[in-house]
Write a structure and sequence with these properties.
The chain is mainly alpha-helical. Helix content is 55%, strand content 0%.
Length: 93
C-alpha cells in the first residue's frame, strides 16, 4: 500500500489535534488558584489566567512529529500493517 501525501497529511492533522487536546490542561491556572489576581469583576473563578496557547501549539507540533515519525518508520519497516493488526485482533480479512 502506497501512502499518499494527502493521506499522510490527514493522519498528521488528526494526530496533531488529538495531542493538542491532551496537552491543553497542563500548566493552566485559573483565577481561584492564583488568588484572584487580575480578575475582572464578574469573571468566572474557573476561567484560565493564561492559556499559553503558542507554547502548547509548539509542544504539540514537536510531540506529534515524533509520534508520526515513529509510526511511519514502523509502517515502512513492516511492523505496522493492516494484515498484522487484523491477526492481532483476530479479525478475518
Amino acid at each position: 500500500m502506497v501512502a499518499t501525501i494527502t493521506g499522510l497529511l490527514a493522519i498528521y492533522f488528526v494526530l496533531w489535534w488529538t495531542v493538542l487536546f491532551v496537552t491543553l490542561p497542563f500548566g493552566v491556572r485559573n483565577h481561584a488558584e492564583s488568588g484572584g489576581e487580575g480578575a475582572t469583576p464578574g469573571t468566572d473563578p474557573g476561567a484560565p489566567v493564561a492559556t499559553l496557547l503558542a507554547r502548547k501549539a509548539l509542544l504539540t507540533t514537536v510531540i506529534s512529529a515524533v509520534i508520526f515519525a515513529v509510526a511511519l518508520y514502523a509502517y515502512h519497516a513492516g511492523w505496522l500493517s493492516i494484515d498484522r493488526l487484523a491477526r492481532l485482533m483476530h479479525v478475518p480479512l
